[in-house]
Amino acid sequence: MLQVVDTQWKDHLYSLDHLKEGIGLRGYGQRDPLVEYKKESFALFQDMKGRIDEETVRYLFWLRAAADESAAPVRRPAPRRAAPMTFSAPTGGAGGGSSGRLRTLRRQGGLGHRRLRGRAATTRR
Description:
The protein is built from two helices and four strands; from the N terminus they run H-H-E-E-E-E. It is of the alpha+beta class.
């Protein structure tokens, strides 16, 4: 990509030299040569920037990634399977006390739903 910028810059400088040679004739047309040179050189600069953008995009479009044959192959981890989730909740009386026993509840329903003590609770992700 640096080569694209370098080539376009050289072409721009060549165009400015060509413009400088013929700008003196503008004085015969009752126009200020300096003002005309500034206007046209700016237009040439804008055109150069557009060409750099186009060439860079064209270069990147045709770019292909090359695989290094001597490099070791990349190991990808095996896909993980979801383990069954279990939730433990204490069992107890109405006072909220626990008799020391834990009751295991299994997840039921879709991915975002679980049932605890007979009520459905949703989880946010």
